Amino acid sequence: MIDFEDGYMARSLSEKDKIIKYQPSENIILGKDESSPNTIIFQSMTPWSIFKNIESEDSRVIFWTCHPNNFIPDLHFLNFLGDGFKKFFLKVFLYTYYKKSKNFVKYLLKENSLFFMDQTTLKNTSYFLDISVENPEFLPIAIEKSSLENSLVPLEKVTLFWIGRLVDFKYFILEKLILDLERLVPNLSFSLKVIGDGPYLKNLNSLKSKVSYEISVEREIENNKLDEYLINNCSILFAMGTAALEGAKLGIPTILLDISYKRISQVYNYRWLFERDGMTLGENIKDVSLDSSNDDSLELRIKEYLENFKEISSKTLKYFDNNHNLENTSSELLKKIDNSTSQWGKIKKSKFTSRGIVYNFYKYLKR
Fold first, then answer.
1. N or C: which end of the chain has fewer CB within 10 A?
2. Rounded distance, CA 180 to CA 187, Å?
3. In this structure, what DSSP letter does residue 135 have?
4. Predicted pLDDT of residue 332
5. pTM here?
């Protein structure tokens, strides 16, 4: 594993896992084994952002798209104007980077070296880069099962949990949840626990004063303590991405939330994770069908938990095993690695990784 010394992955690994500390100014030399060549797995990124100081020219490379915007330049300052304007801005003012990213994705597809986490990451990549992917390869995000999965029992007091970073595309669905829960106060007794930190923490603290039920915030819980904490305290988990799997692997009834970059005014349909199609850990809310939206969906989900806890828990755990169990995904990953034909040396020397004046100027301004 290659990561910054204080990076998330470096902090999350156990002591038995090997970490190679990344330093931008130093080369990383990977060992060579003729019988088993190296494979470098990157989370997908814009090609000019790739770390070029890894020395292992003959290594195969695969890119795993785990975020909708992995191949898109950072345009978060335009989120309030919508995807249409962001795409226009990208193609007009950053055309060179649009073209470079597009050609890089096409190259990876040709080399069987690009995989998508879910339909959302595929849709976003296709939309912004105007690429039609005929036979996309999917590799769902997965995490390890927990030994505590069979120790779950319904709690006497309903405590709802939300886990996730407090950032733009996650905050607005949390805001929607908090306001929708306020409507249930006359009929249900519950509290909400938010585990997360980020630039929208101040917005959350402000929002807390606008509701009558209890909201508590924990900025972080250590990974090795999270399972037991959820088992003992969480009734229903609301989350997106890998955070949703932290509850699902334990059999905790989990409602999968969707992505929004702006305030949500329409009715939102709250759905159990196991009601989704197995190929998403959160869609862009603009792509979510409103046909099945129900003003009472949140209340209905909580009542289902109260009346059918064992059934909901069992379906959640089964869904996790079928779609996101690390054991299954690992074997699928090994098959995909065998089919990859891209080489690290060729990518490093290609025009894809050249950064250009605009990128260098942008990095200079961010110092």
1. C
2. 13
3. S
4. 87
5. 0.85
